[in-house]
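Researcher: Re-running this chain for the archive, since the previous output was lost when a drive failed. Same request as before.
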Amino acid sequence: ITGADSDFSKVGVKAIDDQTVEYTLARPEPYWNSKTTNSILFPVNEEFLNSKGKDFGTLSPDSILYSGPYLLKDFTSKSSIEYVKNPHYYD
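Model: Regenerated structure tokens:
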């Protein structure tokens, strides 16, 4: 996915249902299964994405969509990362 084509009927990514994403590859990819664990391929909530616009995914703590046990509190490039407990994560 290079971003050259924004017609999603052509890029090989399709939401099958609320729980399933299907990727269609142009050719065999030996490391595909391991690549799917990279966050760049994770589905994103459309409402959240649209609300953040160009700031989505920046290192500002409020521009990241969280689903794990920790939230980013502060990030200083090449120095420190501080996390806090996600109060909405199950215990």
